[in-house]
Amino acid sequence: MSRLAKRFETLRSAGRTALIPYLTAGDPHPDATPDFMHALVDAGADVIELGVPFTDPMADGPVIQAACERALMHGTSLRQVLDMVARFRERDRDTPVVLMGYFNPIDSMGLDTFAARASEAGVDGALIVDMTAEEAPDIAPSLSAAGIDPVCLIAPTTGRERIARICENAAGFIYYVSFKGVTGAASLDTDRLAGQIAPIREATSLPIGVGFGVRTPDNAAAVAAVADAVVVGSALVREIAEHGDDRDLTAQRLGQTLSAMRVAIDDSDQSQRDEREQEGEGA
């Protein structure tokens, strides 16, 4: 069982929702990323999603695009990102790490070489944004063979037949994009989420994480009521953009922002457990 699967199994048994923060690797400087990752774990992260900076991030809004630009100014490469994960693993052997990015840097390195090096560094999953359902059968097996879960994206526009096809090649969890658009571009409509997620639950037993648009603790709590994981990205990357010159302050602000969401999610989880117990007593 992968580290990701174990983490989600533990959380499910405890009736808790996973909190998955996103950072762009190398922003504002490659040396800072492992420290920021540790700060997020200390604040309640269950999984770390680490973005591989890319010159043309088609799924990312202006906040994360700017983060990619800052990282690339320092020459952050895929190899350096793997080194960051290895440094993180020197202190943390338990928290799953998922790389999020685009296929071009992986293809440049070589798929099998990437899979081997990522596994050696301690990567647990890879979310390749531009990997289509048609391409997945040619890519996902190499990742799985190296012990890396291929995490797949599903959008609000994805039909039931394609959802099933995507889920066939997915592992770890499903990342559901909460709205049509790019990261940080719109407000989250939590009232619609349960209905949007339902067809995915019919197609897979994998946990479902929801991202894009989670900005506040209230957003996080609302997502936690219907999903297995809450993914937070732009809200954290903004803290780095604002305070990145002061590494200690940035780590503190990242921790404060994520901790508030952790508390809100835990409160939501507890409310749901209480409701289930009351329903059981009334049955």
Describe this structure in words.
This protein has 283 residues and is of the alpha/beta class. The protein has one domain (3-282): TIM Barrel, CATH 3.20.20.70. The chain is 52% helix and 13% strand. The chain has twelve helices and nine strands. It has a nine-stranded parallel beta sheet. Helix 2 packs across helix 4 (78-89), helix 2 runs parallel beside helix 12 (247-282) and helix 3 packs across helix 11.
Topology:
Layout: H1 3-14, E1 18-24, H2 33-42, E2 48-51, H3 62-73, H4 78-89, E3 97-101, H5 103-109, H6 111-121, E4 125-128, H7 136-145, E5 149-150, E6 152-154, H8 160-168, E7 174-177, H9 193-203, E8 208-211, H10 217-224, E9 229-232, H11 234-243, H12 247-282
Parallel strand pairs: 1-2, 1-9, 2-3, 3-4, 4-5, 6-7, 7-8, 8-9
Helix pairs in contact: 2-4, 2-12, 3-11, 4-6, 6-7, 10-12, 11-12
List keywords for this structure.
nine-stranded parallel sheet, globular, 13% strand, alpha/beta, 283 residues, 12 helices, TIM Barrel
Give a quick precis of the structure.
Helix content is 52%, strand content 13%.
User: Averaged pLDDT, please?
Assistant: 92
Provide the CATH topology.
TIM Barrel
Count of DSSP-assigned helices: 12
Largest sheet entry: 9 strands, parallel
CATH architecture: Alpha-Beta Barrel
